[in-house]
Amino acid sequence: MALTFSANKTFRAAALAAGVLMSAHPVLARTAAARESNIETGDTLTGNYLAAIMAGAQSDTEAASIYFREVMRRDPRNTEVVGRAFVASLSNGNMEDAFKIADALVRRESGNGLARLALAVRSIKMGQFATARTHLQRGKMSESSDVTGTLLNAWTWLGSGNTAKAQETIGSLNNQALALFRDFHGALINDVAGRPAEALKRMQAAYESDKNTLRLVEAYASIVGRQGDRDKALAAYKAFDALLPRHPLVVAALKNINDGKPIPPAVSDATEGAAEVLYGLGSANPRRGQELVPMIYLRLAIYLRPDHPLAIVSLADIYDRLKQYDRAIDVYEQMPKNSPLRPNADLQIGLTLETLERKDEAQAHLESILKEQPKDPEALLALGNLHRSRKEYEKAAGYYTKVLDISPKDERGNWSTFYYRGVTHERMKNWPAAEADFKKALELFPDQPSVLNYLGYSWVDRGENLDEAFRMLRKAVELRPTDGYIVDSLGWAYYRLGKYEDSLREMERAIELRPSDPTINDHLGDVYWKVGRTLEAGFQWNHARDLEPEEEDLPRILKKIENGLDIVERQEAEKKKADSTPAPSAPATPAEPAPAQKDGG
Question: Are residues 428 and 480 part of one domain?
């Protein structure tokens, strides 16, 4: 169980009812306020309101906050508009605006839970802990069933100097499903209060229930390390490193412990403790369309603790998944320069610029990082991924090789570099080198789904090691049953062997998982044709055409729409015979891996 939990009902209802959701390189430095001038408001109240609603529906927090602010200026007595403007400002990080609007909201609606939460957080920031408790109580967030209010209340009692009351409040979380929160924050409260034995006892219980969450590992290592057992702290970090190799925070922590440097506390005071509550609640992985609640929690966490690196990364990741790449860059630029995650944030900025098609800036940005740190494996890996995304495979392979030249070959974290280099070798038609890299990746990380998928499919396509290939593909699907691309690979492998009914079963699963992917739609069309469902085949091909497929795939899709698959395959066979060169009937490899990895993983 990760240190995340669904938002409390009061907060969720208030947010959903509202209906909306520095830089190390000066050339990239800019603020959200500076970019707001590019969004022009309209001349009419109705026009601005509709624009605000549309922006909210698209999770565009910046545009929503600007348009709702303009609507509120023209219609300040409209409670619904004021509420929407508040949520938009808060989710966009316009904290001073949000607090002013929250003050106005609670004068009209004293029990507004979200407004009271924001005002409680502001009071915590100002050290006014009793006032914060009043806001939580009036927002009906003080009941033990409300995890947000209970945890924040506990930290305010500690801030007021009442450790016993803080512990009593934490203890009211008696639901077993909340045991991890209770033990984790109970340990942190005792640690800040100078009660090491109780802190260790509670943190040990939390760690034993979840050793795979980085923030919990950091807190556990901090407590045991500062109480004299640095070996246990090292062991905890090394265990996490085996799970997710080379995470920058783990690398930095291991170095500090080995160098004999002091181990800092995870939380130093009540304000940081409250920030930890909000980060833990906001770091959940939201479903598509449900990003607003965690976004607001993370904004509040960063307001309380602007240097919280994991909260910054989590917020940037939400914007990245929403494809609001400019906003993701803005958030990455908030990463403190002295944070171990700052280099990773700079790399993500470069890769995000590439996604924005600002290719020259992206390459210059990443090369400037490499110039400062010529042997930085993450910078080399990022440039390799950049060139691979551009299909410049020879350049990409060169960067991956440089990574491996400066890293221990048998380090588990190198599985991804061998994998990516294997992809580039396969794309360059150098199968022996590709196969060797894929096998090495699996040696370092057995049963890694992406590698199983790519190697297994490639073997099927080549007609080699078929039993082992299908074992790999089935294992990959078993490990990632909701990954449409991997399910598609298994289905397409069945297709290549003429097992159309098996293929159909997997392809229809894949399309449910990835309905908007052009390749999967194209593949399903081919399968429908083979089983005699020609009308449905035409529908899928037309859908694939409309989904902007790869440039090299489009001509074949158009031919199938016009003539059907049989004629296209016959023409390809005749051309193959005439040219004595292979002409694949479909893309012969699985989808390439994404060009970027988060958090140095």
Answer: no
